Amino acid sequence: MLVLRRGTVLHADPPEGTQQAFTVEIDGRERRAFGDVALHGETAAGDDVVVNTQAVDLALGSGGADVLHVNLTRGLGRSGVPGAHVMKLNYTSLQHAVLPVEGEDLHVPLGRPAAVFGLHGQLAPIAWAFSRTAPGGRLGYVQTAGGALPGGHSRVVARMLDEGLLAGHLTAAPAFGGQGEAITTAGALQHGLHDLGWDAAVVGPGPGILGSGSALGHGGLIALDSAHTGLALGCRVVLCARMSSGDPRPRHQGLSHHTATVLRLLLAPVEVALPVGPARTPDADGVLPVARVTGLGHTVTELETDLDGYRASGLPARTMGRSIDEDAPFFAAALACGAALAARITP
Length: 347
What we know:
This protein is of the alpha/beta class. The protein is built from 10 helices and 19 strands. It has an 8-stranded parallel beta sheet with strand order 11-10-9-12-8-13-16-17, sandwiched between helices. Helix 3 (123-133) packs across helix 10. The chain is globular.
């Protein structure tokens, strides 16, 4: 059930893109919260609001803040996007109509490469390595389910768009609030690669991850759907391996069980780019990541990566609280993926 609390806004920060943080008083206590300006409009001091407190109450790490559900002072009586009739978050209290990017025609094979990842922290190193390997290449981002759904929730996406590391941002299926709205991941890929002229796409969830210790109950499994979609549309799919040397959980050391599960369940082979060094370091079970990937029928490309260059870029260099120096394989694997993706571009 929803856990909703009513409170009064004490202070509202200026919006950053479509996200706005504010301080709300609930039952005499101050709490931090955030709202999506594109969805709810701006919030101001004195507003009467209802926020969802459940993730913070459960210490699940939703950015350490509650989430605005409705602004009772200024959020009622609004009109939607003119002409929009396709609903996102449909049959929930946050359903809203969008203008979808999908056209009537099917254009396959797309013939352009797509990288698939399962954790949002992989996006920045993928895009950075892509830009270094293919200067001037147009890389677009398709945001899927599996993590945060609001397209404006990632500050790094906004930064990479501003700096030209990303040529566009489409939100697919339940994700919303990108530069374009797609009903499906397939529709987003076709629109980006065919209609917008992206040279390549990178596909994966927004910040955060739906997690558990189970084999199938985690947001990273969205990579399975994304990879199948890319393959069906005629894309050369490069899967970004989740790797770690610093994660204390054995299931994520070496080649993460997230990646291994996706590779095991894929119905067709894909390419996996692994960084030289970590590719030959045994995981918790004593198996080399390169051997595990090839043993599941997929192709491995081993690449040198520029960790020092990425570290100096100023892009995010922490994952799950660990720095790039504390968990170099995580970033190296994503850098290898970006370089391999760029190498698959054809004139």
